[in-house]
Specification:
The chain is about 35% helix and about 20% strand. It has about 475 residues and is an alpha/beta fold. It has a nine-stranded mixed sheet with strand order 6-7-5-8-9-10-11-12-13, with helices on both faces. A six-stranded mixed sheet has the order 14-15-19-16-17-18, with helices on both faces. A hairpin with a 5-residue loop joins β14 and β15 (about 335). The longest helix is centred in the first third of the chain and has 15 residues, at about 90-105. It is globular. The N and C termini lie far apart (about 60 Å).
Amino acid sequence: MITLRDAKMGAHASLTSHHPINLDETVAAVAVDSRTVERGDLFVAIRGERLDGHTYIPDAVAAGATAVMLAEPPPSPLPEGVVFLRVEDTVRALGELAAYHRRRMHSKVIGITGSVGKTTTKEVLANVLSSRYRTLRNQKSLNNEIGVPLTLLALRPEIEVAVVEIGGAYALGEIEHLCGIARPSVGIVTNVGSAHIGRMGSVEKIAETKSELVACLPADGVAVLNADDPYVRGMAAKARCPVRWYGLDDPAEVRADEIESSGFEGIRFRLHIAGGVYTVQTPLLGRHSVHTALAAAAAAEAVGMDPTEIVAALRGLPVGLRLIVTAGVNGSTIIDDTYNASTPSVLAALNLLAETKGRKVAVLGDMAELGDYAPQEHEKVGMCAARVCDRLYLVGPLGEHTEHGALAAGMSPACIDRFETAEEILPELRRSLAEGDVALLKGSRAMHLDALAAQIAAAEEGTS
């Protein structure tokens, strides 16, 4: 193992749990993408499914990296002034480094997991907390064994609260491992659904892995759980700490009623919290977003925010935290919800589309990682689309099952078109979308509907 003994950046250190790197003294930040490296950074070369970070070590050094963590022999000759740290597994070493750095920081960490809504809940909660605390959040949905450590390595002494999305979609023990690194004292579980069921095998297994966050919370922590989800309710038995419930029914300490959705104008509801009742008007879109607001309110209260502060922050949320509404071609409106897709999230998006005015068009791509459940889950989406949409465009081979569900629910075959790729549908959308139409774009990232949404918006800009 190459150590820092001869480096000018600091005293002797190595990447082991006993002698970790002291980040404050040796490197400015940590990067796993050579394109984001800045002078003084540590570059971690990670070998992925498609790309190998070791290939980009010269680029990282050229960008100013002063240290490189790698699992293969360093390049020869070694660049002068760069320290190479050879480890057996760079991902594991990155986690060990983050765990060490996290132990040195006194920030409170809030962990969020669930099948759907993790990223939106993270964004809403971080915005609420930022109204009072110096807050850190993980970027985008970097919530795995790489993303969580990178977030924690960005902790600095002035950060009071860190909001960390924690994934765990592929195997039991993943969330437990990430919690060992992050050490959250507050944990939120949004829901349990069929997302990634193709990898986990059953909803029960998904619930088991999500419950690891609850089991890892310390006795003086708080578990913030969705009282409306039966799988999440069952997780209370694993908590060593107090449980704070949120939801729509009376047993929840933080709950909502009198919910009104005004399409693109946002939602309005009465918030019951800490014995008080408050009217909240917020730009979050769709009735399903009430649960997001409730989870954020419950967690913010758990770390010490006053209900009046929470309500003010919810009212002042920025527009478009996750879902983006833009002007589209020919005077249409585009609902860009293309980040990813699972059955619950697609159904929620369709329900939002139903609340809008105008001809309703849905462009739905395949949902990934459903395994043997894919046909029935896509049929379920098709049946909902038939009740909502005037026009349905399907992208990807699994669209045949969505079409089958839509036809079974009574949608006319003339209102449905299927395409193999997103590129094929672009000319059709540019031709058929008209003024007043509202088009929802939703699908797994592999379907590349995000690029399609951008091209439709670009077409509108080009004709203005």
